[in-house]
Amino acid sequence: MASRDASTIVWLRDDLRLDDNPALTHAVDVGLPLTVVYILDEESPGVRPLGGAVKWWLHHSLASLAAALKDAGSTLVLRRGPAGPVIRGLAEETGAKHLLWNRRYGGPERAVDAEIKTWAAENGIDAASFQASLLYEPWTITTGSGGPYKVFTPFWRACMASGEPRKPMDAPTHLPSPGAGRVASDVLSEWSLLPVSPDWSGGLARTWQPGEAGAHSRLDDFLDGPVNEYGDGRDVPGVEGTSRLSPHLRFGEISPFRVWHEIRLRFPREATPDVGIFRSELGWREFCWQLLYVNPQLATRNYRPEFDRFEWQEPTAAELEAWRQGRTGYPLVDAGMRQLWQTGWMHNRVRMAAASFLVKNLLADWRLGEAWFWDTLVDADAASNPANWQWVAGSGADASPYFRIFNPVTQSKKFDAEGRYLREFIPELAPLDRKAIHEPWKSLGLEGYPAPVVGLPESRERALATYQRLKDTQG
Hints:
Elements: E1 7-12, H1 22-30, E2 34-40, H2 52-71, E3 76-80, H3 83-94, E4 96-102, H4 107-122, E5 126-130, H5 152-161, H6 202-207, H7 212-223, H8 230-233, H9 246-250, H10 256-266, H11 273-294, H12 317-325, H13 331-343, H14 348-361, H15 366-376, H16 384-393, H17 408-415, H18 420-425, H19 456-473
Parallel strand pairs: 1-2, 1-4, 2-3, 4-5
């Protein structure tokens, strides 16, 4: 180890915030010169490369974080490469005696962290990790037999019975300086995280404010209004009825502990059912991470192994492109896919309809959809994205039964009766009235909008017959 004054390294990952950041808080308590580092690691074994929309968000989130750290008296060091060698090199450069991070739960990431922790112990470095991104860590919530839960409701019930999540820690007002000697940092713009030729991010920039300030503003706006009608409002895509906190939570710009206790602060325990429903959505996020913790290959392998025999059909290039571009001929599916491309996000009710159309009406393997969402969603994370796709496909834990096939016409008539959401993202349908807009193929003279790529009754029957053959093979 180089002969330098002792120092601390805080390694940030999906926790790009100062508020309620246990690793940073502990570094303040240690009091030694501090190096805060973010490593763009897409090279360690098994680590999944980031999608395009996530890269856009990451660029702006890191810029916001760097400014916040500067205001607190510190700096953000950027490095790129496999995390193990990068951390070892940085420890050599800084004379680190303490290495701090907040825990991750994916298989490849845990392997990286375990290897680094072993190396640190062998080299006299105190490596410590903290709970920061989940209210309940996967190994703390188990069934009576000690195994993981496979159904959400008893899982969440067990979480609630295990005690109140810890209270969040306030952001430090001042961080220890890096000390003598400047540590080299990459230049954020040279990471090429932003899209060029073409730059498709205009809609994302108009929709989102990445960073910690944007996360807290989004939470305040939600708790000031939409949460009070969340039970019904979350199903209506044409209104601001959801929190839209998912990308902020994905990057750790706000902690679930802060969200949880802000709700507790503003609403009594006897709060309306709407507040409880929103809390359970936080629980679904926790459940997805438990699934990934136990099943590290959640994005590539069926949770239910019997689905390995399911007869997925290869969609034609035209069908797949129609789904991706929002030109299937079914307005709710198309509005959702266009919202996704324009904003990097899609309303959850519409996500279910769009996903169901791909895996059931087109009979495409759910992994095709998961990969597309991974590349285009700003909130795509390693747990929720595959878990939700498997839920729709019927191959996952606590899955929607395969025979539950979302009818996009019925769904749009029920949840977007006036066609407000459809008109926002499909201007070609603006001339149609509130009834005709849900089934535009019945309107004569409509131009610029495609005919349905597949019939709903026929494709539904094909999906059910395929599922029946799977059941028959199980004996």
